[in-house]
Design goal:
seven-stranded mixed β-sheet; RNA-binding; globular; alpha+beta; 21% strand; four-stranded parallel β-sheet; 26 helices
Amino acid sequence: MLHERAAPTIVRAMSQTPSPDGPARYNFRETEARWQKSWEAAGTFRAAMIPGKPKYYVLEMFPYPSGRIHMGHVRNYTQGDVVARYRRARGYNVLHPMGWDAFGLPAENAAMEKKVHPAKWTYENIATMKTQLKSMGLSLDWSREVATCDPSYYRHQQKMFLDFWKAGLAYRKEAWVNWDPVDNTVLANEQVIDGKGWRTGAPVERRKLTQWNLRITHFADELLERLNTLDRWPEKVRLMQANWIGKSRGARVNWALTDASGADRGRLEIFTTRPDTLFGASFMALSAEHPVVADLAAADPALQRFVEECRKTGTAAADLETAEKQGYKLPLLARHPLKPNETVPVFAANFVLMEYGTGAIFGCPGHDERDHEFARKYGLPILQVVAPADGAKIDIQAAAFVEDGVLVNSQFLDGLGVEDAKARIIARLEETKVGTGTTQYRLRDWLVSRQRYWGCPIPAIHCDDCGAVPVPEKDLPVTLPDDVTFDRPGNPLDRHPTWKHVPCPKCGKPARRETDTFDTFIDSSWYFDRFTSPGVADAPFDRAENKYWMPVDQYIGGVEHAILHLLYSRFWTRAMREVGLADRDEPFEGLFTQGMVCHETYRAADGTWLTPEEIRRDGDRVTRLSDGAAVTVGRSEKMSKSKKNVVDPDQIIRDYGADTARWFMLSDSPPERDLEWTEAGVAGAWRFQQRLWRLVSARAADLAGAGDAAAATGPALALLRAAHRAAAGVSADIEAFHFNKAVARLYELANTIDGFAATDATDRAALRETLEVFITLIGPMTPHLAEELWRTLGHATLLADAPWPKADPALLVDDTVRLAVQMNGKLRATLELPKDCAREDAERAALALPEVMRGLDGKPPKRVVVVPNRIVNIVV
RNA sequence: GCCCGCUUGAUGGAAUGGUAGACAUACGGGACUUAAAAUCCCGAGGCCGCGAGGCCGUGCUGGUUCAAGUCCAGCAGCGGGCACCA
């Protein structure tokens, strides 16, 4: 969903193609196409606002049009479709739309490699994938389809950007960015892998550029606090977002700087979360990108070289981990704000981040591991100012002490605990005006400029006199020029001969268009709003429609978007609120993150990967089809082109049908966990479809006009009970996203139906009712088969319009219960008793059992525990 | 390093503290068939026993409880997220 790194490969036919359809077989090819046409002709899934009718907005993360759908899509959209069809049947007014996250890098790569224009490539992919999605039989309202690369879509996001700009939520700033020196472009963090550009493999550099940013930090606290109220989000995602926002309490402290002669060199502000350890300071460290360092470097070639070094390494996590702490001693001294007679040396250091806090820290080696390492390397003093509370002796020279404890060697803080000491020293810093208590966030503003062609143009014009000027609203949308070339690296917009030359809207002098485009995560930050009224031309959406449909009741997608996409969308919603476009805080009421689709991996003796179609299985023996050579079976991993363990959904749908693919996706694995795709599992799902077809069609003729099941007794009553229990259970399972359990219940009900033989009219009525319940219950999962069976039973109307079965409470309880009889907690026997029978009766019946008598051996029990309708435990 | 999650038959997985292994897949046996496929029936956690039956069993070690896969403490393994964030 959204953007992914690579498109899946196309895989050829399954080795185990089902035999041709005979007369007794369910012909899925003909049937699925027919019902898809029926739904479309009837407009079954078209959504329309009906004020007063409860709505339900189901949304799956829309796909990037990479070329073909893959199994991840099939799983995601199947889950969403189950929810959507279920809610429809429950009487909700359901909105279930689909669109395309259509801007992005792969289109430009295709343009470079295949000499095809990004727009052409994208729209062709959309056409292909739309056909594929339609073959899945999803209950989508295609009339609301949206592609983010369409000017009628992105013009609104340009307008919203201008609104944000006016409101101070968008701004330009100089920032250090990841620069790919081969492609001459900025890369997003996620496009930097192990410190190298993902496309070129060139080591990424840090470069200072003026770029557009969105002020997401303005909402940092709100974004964090509101996470607590998202109780239908996975705990894990909320936690990840909270960590990402990274709120920490601390203090900013000013230190006076002097040079070696004692002359004033201004002040230096640092941020710390441990102001309590201020008396343990033994050095100051500045980021190599800090302005003070830049000033000094102008006259110091050696420092310049140091700064250069830091810039080149620096970005990759792997590098950072192994990189040694490096410092460069600056010709400065810092005066301790609370010990006026003491100074500490000042370093530029490679481990201090310019982007966090003030880009400067004080080093307290005694109580910070990084500072400890740095102090040891440069022979700086290591002072202990916190001691273990239990009085244990520690060697502060050997290792930093970072736990809670009691302050020592710290004047007025001595004897206080860490938390108390923090409060006390912040108060003192504020009194003496050398610092303030502050809250710091790890979250940074969202850098949205990209030096790309295939993205939404940023609607700004740069004038030498007026600076950055908004494009006037009447000139929106700013569209992309078609005549561009991709034969050279860099941004085709920037080198286009005419596109960027425009007069300044303010003063009329020649000026230049902004040639950067937006990060594509902007496109996906509000598409769910657009779906509520996609046809509106003069606004991003109709206010009334939006108010009716939003928020999304159930959002479903991959956990890989736990932070970026979901956080950006939460921000965009708030930014819209801020400029008066909407009055909502949160876009997604419920969120579900589905697991990945995995498959075994296969390798030949020479180590090359093999596709599932290149191998052959004989029991435990796995060989290569072409030459019979032995194949090593590897563990199951996420389907990926590079490991060749990809199965093409198109092929599966062609060979087995959409319902089989859907059924298999839902069975066995819990939806949030990874699913292992197996050929045997698909074949099993396919056999079950056939079995259901036989189950119903063999009985249908006999059931026409079957009467009332109310008089059912004995086996017929038991059958009805099974049906109603299944109805209640499946409903609860779907609502709880336990699709695998719902599937198991349906298997059970099918087994029960199979074992039932109707002998009289009442039996036939009970069987008919059971089959109708059963067909309705499988409807959300295997909609084509269910429609066909529904018709087979004689219905002339669509199952998709039929209401969900209501479980009769009277049929959900049995007259008798089977309870376990334990001795000392170990099962000895079971006992069939009337429901809710008296404790004494249960105890008496249990003690009379031969198994129990034998165990007691004539002795009286020590104690008997009776849990009504559950268990009798006899303690001896 | 920090944070989070997971660990149950051959496999995917069920199980409000109350009959562990529902359901499925794979497997074995049988029926049908000239044969196969398909279909149908039966079996199946491990060990002991002819059998009736018994003992053991949810990563490991303890604890709470009449009763623990489930709760608590500690440990191990696997997976995920973040990571010089001061």
